[in-house]
Specification:
The complex is a heterodimer of chains A (273) and B (266). Chain A has 273 residues and is mainly α. Chain A is built from twelve helices and no strands. The longest helix of chain A has 32 residues. Chain A is globular. Chain B is an all-alpha fold and 266 residues long. Chain B has one domain. Helices cover 78% and strands 0% of the residues of chain B. The chains are: A mainly alpha (273), B mainly alpha (266).
């Protein structure tokens, strides 16, 4: 017990140092910070605008009005931002495999997956977080949600779960590089697919697609199911349990992803031989 | 003729390079297909119980989705990353010493890449799209020449925009963020995700004056017969004007960055 605790303290210590370093690195290229400050919010302002235009042209989407869609989108963007901060490296795993970059991690006395994500922590992802929170607040106001402790706790649990689901998907896709030995950046595509399926209510899609997105690729749990519950859009599911399902799915995804990553890592050969 | 030959070598090498990684190809096809099919479902769901929205029916919209997926393969550019890499690693100086225009090489590389992608990605996407969504038939076959002209022009506009963004690397060195800005602008303002005729009138008017709409939306609108002949000619004209403007800016920028590198080199 004492040993595990000391280890945890050690990891937390390292994390703090690493975050400090990450801040140093991002201020290395000032024009780049400016770029991210424009680029990331821009992306979400656009997403927000698109939803607006779609609603204006087509009316309600499957019974969801603009405010409810904003709520859905906001929550989805926040979990996207969180996953960008911690897990975005998963997108570039192929590069690390091809260039033999895992050598460095393998020689250090810390978990490889931990090092991979945390020594490359993406502080700039905060620029995604702010627009997400703004959209979410807008959605809350539009839907007339009374914010109480239960609501906040639910949202936090959902966000944790949703972030883990996204992270799990990135790791799973990234880990394919160990087997294919190719540098594939599926990140952009993955994001586009997840965006498309989390921005709008899943119920608008045909049942077969809903099934896939609920059970096989559990994207539905990132935003659609929890938000339907928070907004009371579906009566048949019990409310308190839903956030925990999201969390459970997230943890499950992470475990599967971690196992698959470790399985892949065994096949990893350093660049030297 | 000799110079052309050099560029053909670059194109050939790039095609071979692009064909090396099989998994990339399959992966990309699968991903692009999923995106296309979800978009198709998306529009189907929106159009449920509705006939025409924005003067377009659901079938045209599905054709729009397939066409836009196909065009997106054509509009993959690597020039911005290529410039960034060579500036960051300093290889740009040696690139420029070669007896061949460095931007010409980048262009030839992108052409080579696209030829490889056209064979590997566009055909499967077209096939899957036809089977799973609908056969994307052209509304009026007489528009074909105009469609082809517009695609060629949009390809060039798209490449020039990418190259111009890439050139910022000569002063900023790291342009990852700017590449993202460009990507988002292009995705939204070009009508590749959602046609701008769904935007409010004033916004779509402003966008009509910018080059982005002429990248995706114009060729696809011609294909689905959304614009009549007179409008087509007018828009092709604007597209051409943008092509000229961007080419002039490009040539000017090219001279500037070349002289800058020369100075740094001593």
């Amino acid at each position: 017990m004492g040993k595990a605790f000391r280890e945890l303290i050690h990891y937390m210590d390292v994390t703090a140092q690493v975050i400090k370093m990450a801040f140093m690195t991002i201020i290395e290229y000032p024009s780049n910070i400016a770029g991210w400050l424009i680029s990331n919010p821009l992306q979400f302002i656009m997403g927000f605008a698109i939803i607006r235009f779609v609603v204006e042209s087509f009316g309600q989407i499957n019974g969801w009005n603009y405010g409810q869609l904003a709520f859905l989108y906001g929550l989805s963007v926040i979990s996207h931002a969180l996953s960008m901060i911690v897990f975005v490296q998963g997108w570039f795993m192929g590069y690390y495999v091809i260039e033999g970059e895992f050598d460095r991690y393998l020689t250090r006395p810390l978990g490889v997956l931990y090092q991979f994500f945390f020594t490359n922590i993406n502080v700039i992802g905060v620029t995604d977080l702010i627009p997400g929170i703004l959209v979410f607040i807008y959605g809350c106001v539009k839907c007339g949600i009374s914010v109480n402790l239960l609501f906040v706790v639910k949202v936090l649990i959902i966000l944790t779960g949703a972030t883990l689901i996204r992270g799990g998907i990135y790791i799973l896709l990234g880990s394919t590089s160990f087997h294919t030995r190719s540098y594939v950046d599926f990140g952009q595509y993955t994001q586009e697919i997840i965006d498309k399926t989390t921005m709008y209510p899943l119920s608008m899609y045909p049942e077969s697609l809903q099934f896939i997105l609920t059970y096989l690729i559990p994207v539905g749990w990132i935003s659609f199911y929890p938000v339907s519950d928070l907004l009371g859009m579906n009566g048949d599911l019990n409310g308190v349990i839903i956030p925990f399902i999201t969390l459970g799915v997230g943890i499950l995804m992470m475990v599967i992803a971690g196992l698959y990553f470790n399985f892949g890592l065994k096949k990893y050969e350093s660049a030297g031989n | 003729m000799d110079t052309m030959k050099k560029y053909f070598y670059v194109i050939k090498t790039q095609i071979i390079k692009s064909l090396t990684y099989e998994f990339n190809v399959y992966g990309n096809i699968i991903m692009q297909t999923i995106i296309m099919i979800t978009s198709a479902y998306f529009w189907r769901a929106l159009y449920k119980d509705r006939g025409m929205v924005g003067d377009v029916d659901v079938d045209s919209m599905l054709t729009y989705v397939i066409l836009s997926s196909l065009l997106s393969v054509l509009f993959i550019t690597n020039v911005e990353r290529r410039i960034e890499m060579s500036v960051e690693k300093g290889t740009v100086a040696t690139d420029m010493m070669k007896p061949i225009n460095v931007f010409g090489v980048y262009f030839a590389e992108d052409i080579g890449n696209i030829i490889a992608l056209a064979l590997q990605n566009m055909l499967p996407i077209l096939l899957i799209g036809s089977l799973m969504i609908r056969v994307p038939v052209m509304k009026d076959i007489h528009d074909l020449p105009f469609f082809i002209i517009s695609v060629v022009q949009s390809f060039l506009i798209n490449w020039l925009v990418a190259a111009l963004f890439g050139m910022i690397a000569f002063s900023a060195v790291n342009i990852d963020a700017l590449i993202q800005v460009k990507k988002h602008l292009l995705r939204l303002l070009s009508g590749s995700i959602i046609p701008i005729w769904f935007f409010p009138g004033s916004i779509s008017k402003i966008l009509g004056a910018l080059p982005f709409v002429y990248i995706y939306q114009l060729p696809v609108s011609i294909y689905i017969g959304k614009v009549d002949r007179a409008q087509q000619l007018g828009q092709l004209g604007i597209q051409f004007i943008w092509l000229v403007i961007l080419s002039v800016i490009f040539l000017h920028a090219q001279n500037r960055v070349t002289s800058k590198v020369m100075i740094q080199g001593g």
